[in-house]
Amino acid sequence: MHPNCLFCKIINGDIPASKLYEDDEVTAFWDIAPQAPRHFLVIPKKHITGPAALGSEDEQLIGKVMRTGARLAAENGIGDGFRMVFNNGAEAGQTVFHLHMHVLGGRAMNWPPG
Ligand code: AMP
Ligand code: ZN
Q1: 93 lines ligand 1 (CB under 6 A)
Q2: What b/e sequence results for 31-43 when a residue is b if at least 16 CB atoms lie within 10 Å of its CB, and e otherwise?
Q3: What pLDDT does 44 receive?
Q4: How do residues 17-71 score in pLDDT, each as one tens digit?
Q5: How far is the CA of 35 from the centre of ligand 1 (A)?
Q6: Any residues with CB less than 8 A from the CB of 48 and at least 6 apart, and which?
Q7: Where are the alpha helices (DSSP H) in 6-108?
Q8: Contact 49/98 with Cβ under 8 angstroms?
């Protein structure tokens, strides 16, 4: 629990979110500003600032984040086509500095991303 972290507050229940899934290690909730018909975030409960801050001890955890995202994509009707995105650093568009994986689907995706 990081006192000034928005996503730690969501994990802790201090700020409401529309949760799809939660267990002792990860939480998933719908993005408040969806960029596709389906757009949710999967986060570890452990406060890690972003992908660049992952340690070797986090390798199993980040694998679980990805597998959970794929499972929830299938359960929410976008199993045939979805995009997973991690933004690392403000330059890349990261605005919340608690590691999160975006899962987007329900429309055709463009490449390269903006
Ligand atoms: P990023 O720009 O990669 O750091 O992504 C942060 C994401 O968190 C954005 O897509 C925001 O729309 C989303 N977000 C911010 N606040 C909330 C919130 N209270 N509940 C759900 N999603 C949020
Ligand atoms: Zn946090």
Answers
A1: yes
A2: beeeebebbbbbb
A3: 98
A4: 999 999 999 999 999 999 999 999 999 999 999 999 999 999 999 999 999 999 9
A5: 11
A6: 54, 58, 98, 99
A7: 6-12, 59-75
A8: yes
- Ligand number nearest CA of 1 is 2
Q: Give the CATH number for residue 96.
A: 3.30.428.10
Residue 112 lies inside a defined structural domain of this protein:
no
Question: How many domains in the chain?
Answer: 1
Q: Would residue 111 count as lying in a domain?
A: no
Contacts of 11 (CB under 8 A, 6+ apart): 1, 27, 43, 45
Residue 44 lies in a domain: yes
